[in-house]
Amino acid sequence: MSAPVQENIASAADGISPSALCHIVLRTPTENYSKMVDFYLTFLGAHATHTHPRVTFLTYDYEHHRIAIVNYPDLKPLDTQAAGLAHIAFGFDTLTELATSFEQKKARGILPFWCVNHGMSTSMYYRDPDGNELELQVDNFETVTEAIEFMNGAKFEENPIGVDYDPEEFVRRVRSGEDEKRIKMRSDLVES
């Protein structure tokens, strides 16, 4: 997925915006270190650019690393009831890529716990071995402007979360050649 052109650049008085979100670092307890590395290698189709008993750096694109997994002895388990990061999202360009990703992960025993069409994106949510939540998504609009317009509209105001969908039915629809625009439309917005 290529980076979209930034449509609105903040003035220096507002604070300069970064050009990219470059990587994330995940801490994991020693007993999960290998499982976490293996999970992200599989989940992202990544490869290791550096491996060490203390830290592994992974990438799936042009960056030297997108994910670093750090081995921390004696970490407490993830507390999902505490404030903090909710999930990390990764994007695909097409519904076919998302469907293929689902099938590949399913074949390896990795299943989403939630599939939802948010309106501006079609998404599948997973958990890694530590319980961190990951989103795989496809944007449903051609432009960021269209997505923002949808997010500021009445239908999104009524339901800002979205509508759940069955991933097997989603794959069937994609593989059948059904029009992508129709599949991307949230089911509560489709006119009969």
From TrEMBL:
Name one matching Pfam family: Glyoxalase
What Gene3D superfamilies does the record tag this protein with?
A: 2,3-Dihydroxybiphenyl 1,2-Dioxygenase, domain 1
Name the InterPro entries for this protein.
Answer: Glyas_Bleomycin-R_OHBP_Dase (IPR029068), Glyas_Fos-R_dOase_dom (IPR004360), VOC_core (IPR037523)
Which residue numbers delimit the VOC domain? 20-139
Q: What is this protein called?
A: VOC domain-containing protein
The source organism is Talaromyces amestolkiae
| Organism phylogeny | Eukaryota, Fungi, Dikarya, Ascomycota, Pezizomycotina
